[in-house]
């Protein structure tokens, strides 16, 4: 039996104080961030270039490299989230989608799961960014994107996961 005492309810997250039973049978009290999860997408064009965005993230202290991604709406299928975010942020749709996997962003205190996808057979369309989104769209070659990892230019976990998982498909 889990006892849950709400501590904070925000627009994106909720924070609870939860008492649960540990594997050894003893009670433990934890602060848990509840998040609806999200989806990220590694879009690759017919020239083997990948879509990376350089986005301003206040919590990260500035600009970071990411794949297009976003939060799932309540009950939304993760694939639909990925498709929506690719179109809204980059102005791209795709006809070939493959699920690469799913990652726990920070399982020590948060239940957020990010589903990651590979998108190919791309078509340009219009963006629909939110007012608070500040980003630049870049299309580096696959080898350059992978090189950005070894140079520690990419540190976002979902982006690292996308690039790592996509190796099996490329």
Description of the molecule:
With 170 residues, the protein is α+β, with helices and mostly antiparallel strands. The chain has two domains: 3-33, no CATH class; 36-102 and 112-169, Nucleoside Triphosphate Pyrophosphohydrolase (Alpha-Beta Complex). The chain is 19% helix and 42% strand. The strands form three sheets. The chain has a four-stranded mixed beta sheet, with helices on both faces. β1 (3-9) and β2 form a beta hairpin. It is elongated.
Task: Describe the strand arrangement of the main beta sheet, using strand numbers.
Answer: 7-4-9-8
**Low-pLDDT sequence parts:** none
CATH level 4 superfamily of the largest domain = Nucleoside Triphosphate Pyrophosphohydrolase
Find the count of extended strands (DSSP E, 2+ residues).
10
Order of helices and strands: EEEEEEEHEEEHH
**Biggest sheet architecture:** 4 strands, mixed
Rg, nearest Å: 18 Å
Just name the CATH architecture of the largest domain: Alpha-Beta Complex
Content-based structural category:
alpha+beta
- Span from first to last CA? 46 Å
Q: Which percent range fits the helix content?
A: 10-25%
CATH fold type of the largest domain = Nucleoside Triphosphate Pyrophosphohydrolase
Output the number of helix runs: 3
Average pLDDT across residues?
Answer: 95
What would the principal axes of the Cα set say about the shape? elongated
Strand content: 35-45%
The CATH C-level name of the largest domain is Alpha Beta
Total discrete domains: 2
């Amino acid at each position: 039996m889990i006892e849950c005492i709400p501590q904070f309810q925000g627009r994106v997250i909720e924070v609870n104080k939860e008492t649960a039973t540990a594997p050894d049978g003893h009670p433990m009290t934890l602060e848990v961030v509840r998040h609806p999860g999200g989806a990220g997408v590694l879009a690759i064009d017919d020239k083997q270039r990948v879509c990376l965005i350089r986005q301003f993230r206040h919590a990260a202290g500035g600009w970071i490299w990411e794949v297009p991604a976003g939060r799932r709406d309540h009950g939304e299928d993760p694939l639909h989230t990925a498709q929506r975010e690719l179109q809204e942020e980059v102005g791209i749709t795709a006809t070939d989608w493959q699920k690469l996997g799913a990652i726990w962003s920070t399982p020590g205190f948060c239940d957020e799961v990010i589903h990651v996808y590979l998108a190919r057979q791309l078509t340009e369309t219009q963006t629909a960014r939110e007012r608070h989104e500040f980003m630049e769209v870049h299309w580096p070659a696959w080898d350059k994107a992978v090189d950005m990892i070894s140079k520690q230019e990419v540190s976002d976990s979902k982006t690292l996961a996308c690039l790592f998982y996509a190796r099996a498909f490329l």
